[in-house]
Structures are given as C-alpha cells and as structure tokens.
Design brief:
GO terms for molecular function: 2-dehydropantoate 2-reductase activity. The protein is of the alpha/beta class and about 300 residues long. It has 2 domains: about 170 residues, NAD(P)-binding Rossmann-like Domain (Rossmann fold, 3-Layer(aba) Sandwich); about 130 residues, N-(1-d-carboxylethyl)-l-norvaline Dehydrogenase, domain 2. It contains 11 helices and 10 strands. Strands 1, 2, 3, 4, 5, 6, 7, 8, 9 and 10 form a 10-stranded mixed sheet that branches. The longest helix has 22 residues. The protein is globular.
C-alpha cells in the first residue's frame, strides 16, 4: 500500500468519516474545515461506527487552503450547491498528478469538475451509507459504508489507483465500469428517500423506516424509483437498471434522517440542483414520462423557494 497526501475539502459527516478512515490507514490527511476547525484542533476527531470506533487525539485541520499545498488526492465532499465555488479551493491543492475524488450526491457532478480540471484526474464516489455528524468533530456511522468508485472516462487503469488509495482501510470498496450507470443507480435511492421525507416535514418529518413500513409511502417510493430507473435506462441506452435490482433499497433499517430532510428541518440550504433538478432536466430532454418522479421533485423545488433555502 502506498501512503498519500490527501486534502479533504468538505469536512462534514462524509468528509470527516472517510477522511478519518484514510487517516487510520496511515495516510497524511489534512481537513479543510470551518465549523469544526476549532474543535478538531483542540479535541481531535471522534468516529462512532458499526465498523469500529476510532478516536484521533490530534488531526491536521486548517481554515485556509494555502496551508495545505499540493497533494496526491483531493477528497471533495462538499454539499453539491457549493461545488462551483469550491473549484478554487481544489485548484489550491492541484499538482500535475493530483486526482480528485468527488463523494457528492447528484447528477452532473463530474461534468461540472471537467470544465476546470483534467478529465483523466476526475473520479466519482457513490457512498451507500448512513452517516450523521452529531456535533463538531464527532461523526456517527450508523449503517453500511460501501463506496462505489467510477472514473470520469471509465478508465480501468485509473480505477485501480482509487482502489489503492483505500487499501488497508476499513472502507468497503467496489468499482464501476460505467460511472454514469452508478450515478443513476444511486439516484434510485437519493430521489425517493431524500425527497419524500423532506416533503413530509410539513407533517413533522418522517424517517426512512416509516417510508418502508407504511404501505402507501412505500408504494410512492417504489413508483418514484421506477421512474428514475426509466430515465436512467433511456440515458444509458444499452445498459439497464432494473427496478428489481433496487429492491434492497426499500429494506432500510432504523429511523435514519436523510440529508435533505435534516437541512430543511434545520433551515439550512438544500441540495436541490444536482440531486433533483438535473435528473429532471435530463428526463425532460430525453422526453421520458416520469410523473411520480416529477411530482416529488417539483414539490421539493417549491419547498426550497417558499422556505428560501
């Protein structure tokens, strides 16, 4: 296993967890932080996880990207609405061989990065996990944790490099021969299970376990998922995402609060464009009928406008 210099840009729950696991594996990890900066420098990082707790009394955390310099890997885990603005931060860490791994939910993430960075250096990560930040410098990993990696140009040799990055860590890794396929596959979960709970906030909010146990909400999630599959199939042409292949997504354990619901409840800016808007725009461009998916997304966009989030 090689040891790499890694910059984590976006030190929220996802960035802290996967950055922490890379630190645990022996890599030189620096967290670019804002909210957690003082706590990380004072008390370190604490991870509670189904895969084993880990505490770091000291971590490298900075508030200015100029304190990081050139790295081997940028782990980019910002909220998708901050993606465009964060490009300048990424540029501050780039060298000729620096690679970018975007572990961000949504559709069109890598193409956004491709307008500014070398295409062969861009990777996407689809994290199938339940992770929340409990307080500054503390992360709670509740379930799952596997990341599926894809390369922007679907280069298998490059994919081997991201596998090498996580070798020796406690992170379960899979690779995808087609990044676009895996993006649509993740959207089969993101759109129904981020969208429906956020809509239900008006009723006091619901968690994912309610969706999978209530027959009407489960049916709605299934119908939305089938619409996403239909759009993805059209976009992928010869590749298929079968609704049956997504059945496990409706068997989620426990009362997990997805990120869109948390942001809405806490009055924070919501991730709408990449997670909801771009997939719907693609469906319309392909002229695919997707009434359930369109209804959920339209309500989410309306909530965002009304709440000014």
């Amino acid at each position: 296993m090689s040891n790499f210099r890694i910059a984590v840009i976006g030190s929220g729950a996802v960035g802290l967890y996967y950055g922490g696991r890379l630190l645990e594996a022996g890599h030189d990890v620096t967290f670019l932080a804002r909210r957690d900066l003082d706590r990380l420098n004072k008390d370190g990082l604490r991870i509670k996880s189904v895969d084993g707790d880990v505490n770091f009394a000291q971590v490298k955390a900075v508030g200015d990207v100029t304190e990081i310099g050139e790295v081997d890997w940028v782990l980019l885990s910002v909220k998708s609405y901050a993606l465009e603005a964060c490009k300048e931060l990424v540029k501050g860490c780039m060298g000729p061989q620096t690679r970018i791994l975007a572990v961000i939910n949504g559709f069109g993430i890598e193409s956004c990065l491709a307008s500014d960075f070398p295409h062969d250096k861009i990777f996407g990560g689809m994290a199938f996990t339940c992770i929340n930040r409990e307080s500054d410098g503390e992360v709670n990993h509740l379930k799952y944790g596997t990341i599926t990696f894809g390369h922007y140009k679907d280069d298998k040799d490059e994919l081997a490099k991201v596998v090498d990055l996580f070798e020796g860590s406690k992170v379960k890794v899979t690779t995808s021969d087609c990044l676009l396929y895996s993006r649509w596959e993740k959207l089969c979960w993101n759109i129904p299970f981020n969208g429906c709970p956020a809509i239900a906030v008006a009723m006091g909010g619901i968690t994912t376990d309610i969706i999978v146990t209530d027959p009407d909400l489960r049916l709605l999630a299934r119908k939305v998922m089938e619409d996403v599959v239909k759009v993805g199939n059209e976009d992928l042409e010869t590749r298929n995402i079968s609704p049956e292949n997504e059945a496990d997504n409706l068997a989620l354990p426990g009362p997990y609060r997805p990120s869109t619901m948390i942001d809405l409840v806490e009055g924070k800016q919501m991730e709408v464009e990449y997670m909801f808007g771009n997939p719907l725009e693609r469906a319309r461009a392909l002229q695919v009928s997707c009434g359930y998916m369109e209804s959920v997304i339209s309500m989410i966009k309306g909530i965002q406008r009304i709440r000014k989030l």
